[in-house]
Specification:
Blueprint lengths: L2 H7 L3 E4 L10 E6 L4 H14 L3 E7 L5 E7 L13 H8 L5 E4 L2 H11 L9 E9 L4 H14 L5 E4 L5 E4 L6 E5 L6 H11 L9 E6 L7 E2 L16 E2 L6 E8 L5 H16 L13 H9 L4 H10 L11 E3 L7 E8 L1 H13 L4 H16 L6 E9 L18 E9 L5 H15 L7 H7 L11 E5 L7 H9 L3 E2 L3 E2 L8 E7 L5 E8 L5 H18 L9 H5 L9 E3 L7 E8 L7 E6 L7 H8 L5 E8 L19 E6 L2 H16 L4 E5 L4 H17 L3
Parallel strand pairs: 9-10, 14-23, 16-18, 18-21, 25-26, 25-27, 27-28
Antiparallel strand pairs: 1-2, 1-28, 2-4, 3-4, 5-8, 6-13, 6-19, 6-20, 7-8, 10-13, 11-12, 15-22, 16-17, 21-22, 24-26
Helix pairs in contact: 2-3, 5-7, 11-12, 11-15, 17-19
């Protein structure tokens, strides 16, 4: 392993004393880590390049400590020094790698849901599977995926959520390929195990491939003349029929890629496999770096004005079920229904008759179901998320960039039972056209621009119409020339950060396949099945509505005999503060307070307590629900002469800093803060220990 790669995997730590500094004084951070002079310079250079509001210098205080000083430029006399921002903390503690780029707004939402373990294990993992018939050279197969990773930046990315969430770009990344022989594991068990295994998001390699060999097909007894059409084999011989297809499972994290991006990577892999495991050409551009730069160059004024008016009103109907009791279930559920090809064709023709597409027909049906669940009377605004892939941006080449470029945007329409159905169809069509101008606008920006509170949810459901890139005929022909046939990859699982996500896509026969993924804590299996069955019923019946005078109310009447599904209403997560002594420490030793918030890697603090041999008293302060402990809760931990050292790993670092600021303001004494980046359990614990040793050395 190269030294560059070793440092890229190391976890950095800083020691800082917030508050108590004179006005205009610089922010001073001691760098703690396995850093040489060159690496320390790299950290300082990174901060200087991205934070022009500071003059950044790297000093040695004479004791071997490396200090990064950030002197504010333009701070007026008497002003307090600026606070530590999430962006600054991220750049101080991000891994030393090939580079970083900010995540998109939607990536941020998915990443934070994953690292705070919302929904339990197995969530946020996407799986594609298909059959591979013909020769499969495992060595060549693996080399082809490694070649794709060398070419595609997104496959060499990991995540950092210490401060402002980042994509960390590495020079190299492993792509795990594992092949199982037939009968060593059942397919359903393989899928289940793979989902539960998840990914370590701080490490590159957030895509893996698993192969499961099929059984060798039994050879058939030789048939003599008269036993079937055509000449049979010679008497006494057996006709070999060859092996069954190998099943291919591609797994990736939903915060890294969307479905289209995964299909683009599969297409690239085929090219590499056909070229003996090496994809032609070098690193491809544009990529996620170019997309990030494109986003930063957007003029947001027009989008701000649009969303200030177009954001869903607070009273919009958004839930697919009426209020019901708790489901007593957890995890994600998944069900599918299918429109047959001739039914799909009729739906397409009906929508085209009124100047719309079948995606608009699906949006109409979903709006009707939300209206019905609201038990409304008269015109009511209805809102649901619509996913835009972001592949039609003005960024040249965006259509072929693998990544997560798109965004779910809230579509709001007015459902009026007395209005003609075709008016609602045109309304959703026009709304989608308006939204298509803003696929780069994230939900948090919409909340901000529309004056909604940050924790609000813009929609409870998401409708996504998937369009995957076709495998070029020339590529399929080249595979066939080598005796290889491959199916179109199909989704084997899915996840939803909302109560319900509905995905529509065409199958190989031209039928419309609908997959509903739902949160079983909010929607029971029976109620989810009811929602999707009623959706299918309306889609089948829409093509019968040929008269433009048919009203919305008449179409709703088609479901009159069906029961309205029920849905549990989830409350906000409770705000909690828990204080516990993990190690009593010496009678006059300092107090180390380990701040725990959602997103801290599990096991880091436990590992520190076991491995760190310092004399300090060690306590934990666990916070949940965006609460910040009042400084008055901390003095009881301190006795005469004790110093408080607040420690935070990853996202807890900035919380520890905020607590220290409040403590300093209240007690007029400086509190030391130790903040680390994110890595594996042992790496993160060692980073904390190194910083604590440096703090202790100051008073020895």
């Amino acid at each position: 392993m190269s030294s560059h790669h070793s440092h890229a995997q190391a976890v950095l730590a800083v020691v800082h004393e917030p508050g108590g500094a004179r006005p205009g004084a610089p922010l001073v951070f001691e760098l703690c880590g396995p850093l040489g002079a060159a690496e320390a310079e790299a950290v300082a250079d990174r901060v200087a390049a991205r934070h022009r509001a500071y003059t950044v210098t790297l000093d040695d205080d004479g004791t071997g400590r490396r200090l990064v000083r950030l002197a504010p430029t333009g701070t007026a006399s008497g002003e307090r020094p600026p606070a530590l921002s999430a962006d600054l903390l991220a750049d101080l503690l991000a891994p030393l790698s090939a580079g970083t780029v900010p995540v998109t707004g939607y990536q941020r939402e998915l990443l934070l849901a994953a690292v705070t373990r919302q929904g339990g294990p197995g969530r946020h993992i996407e799986q594609l599977c298909w059959n591979w018939t013909g020769p499969l050279d495992t060595t060549r197969f693996t080399a082809a995926w490694h070649s794709v990773a060398d070419r595609e930046t997104v496959l060499r990315a990991s995540f950092d959520w210490t401060g402002a969430p980042l994509l960390v770009l590495h020079d190299h990344a492993p792509i795990e390929v594992v092949r199982h022989r037939h009968a060593t594991v059942a397919w359903s068990e393989l899928l289940r195990r793979d989902r539960l295994r998840g990914f370590e998001l701080h490490r590159p390699g957030l895509l893996r491939v698993t192969l499961l060999d099929g059984p060798p097909q039994r050879s058939a007894p030789a048939r003599g003349p008269g036993h079937g059409p055509g000449p049979g084999p010679l008497p006494g011989t057996r006709a070999a029929t060859g092996p069954a297809p190998t099943r291919v499972l591609l797994s990736y994290h939903s915060a890294l890629l969307d479905g289209r991006g995964a299909h683009l990577l599969v297409r690239e892999f085929y090219r590499a496999y056909l070229a003996d495991g090496v994809v032609p050409g070098g690193e491809r551009r544009p990529d996620i770096r170019d997309h990030a730069a494109w986003l930063q160059g957007r003029d947001t004024e027009a989008a701000r004005r649009y969303w200030a008016a177009a954001a869903p009103p607070a009273d919009a109907a958004v839930r697919p079920g009426r209020d019901g009791g708790r489901t007593r279930f957890t995890g994600a559920g998944r069900i599918q229904r299918r429109l047959r090809p001739h039914q799909t064709s009729r739906l397409r023709s009906w929508a085209a008759l009124w100047g719309a597409g079948e995606s608009s027909a699906l949006h109409v049906v979903w709006a009707l179901l939300l209206y019905r669940a609201a038990d409304a009377r008269g015109p009511v605004p209805v809102s649901f998320g619509v996913h835009f892939s972001g592949r039609d941006l003005t960024l040249e080449g965006a259509a072929d960039v693998p990544g997560l470029l798109g965004n779910p945007l809230p579509m709001t329409v007015t459902v009026d039972p007395a209005a003609p159905l075709v008016d609602l169809l045109r309304q959703v069509r026009d709304a989608a056209l308006d939204l298509s101008s803003y696929p780069w606008v994230s939900g948090d920006r919409i909340l901000q621009w529309s004056g909604r509170e940050e924790a609000a949810r813009l929609a409870d459901t998401l409708v996504r119409f998937d369009s995957r890139p076709e495998l070029p005929e020339v590529l399929r022909a080249e595979l066939k020339a080598q005796g290889i046939q491959v199916d179109v990859p199909q989704s084997a699982s899915g996840d939803t950060s909302l109560p319900v996500t509905l995905v529509a896509q065409y199958d190989a026969d031209g039928g419309l396949l609908l997959t509903a993924t739902y949160d079983r804590a909010e929607l029971s299996d029976a109620d989810a099945s009811g929602v999707l069955s009623q959706c299918m019923e309306l889609l089948r019946r829409l093509s019968d509505q040929q008269d433009e005078r048919v009203t919305v109310g008449q179409v709703l009447g088609l479901l009159e005999s069906g029961e309205v599904p029920r849905m549990a209403r989830q409350g906000r997560r409770p705000r909690t503060v828990a204080l516990a002594v993990l190690r009593p420490g010496g009678p006059h030793a300092d107090v180390v307070c380990l701040v725990a918030v959602p997103g801290v890697p599990p096991g880091v603090y436990e590992s520190l307590v076991q491995e760190y041999e310092g004399p300090e008293r060690i306590v934990s302060l666990s916070l949940a629900g965006d609460v910040r402990t009042p400084p008055s809760a901390l003095p009881e931990l301190l006795g005469p002469g004790r110093r408080l050292v607040l420690c935070g790993c990853g996202p807890a670092g900035r919380v520890a800093y905020e607590i220290a600021q409040g403590t300093a303001a209240r007690t007029a004494t400086a509190t030391t803060v130790v903040m680390t980046g994110i890595g594996g359990v042992s790496e993160s614990a060692r980073a904390l220990a190194r910083a604590l040793e440096s703090v202790r050395a100051r008073t020895v």
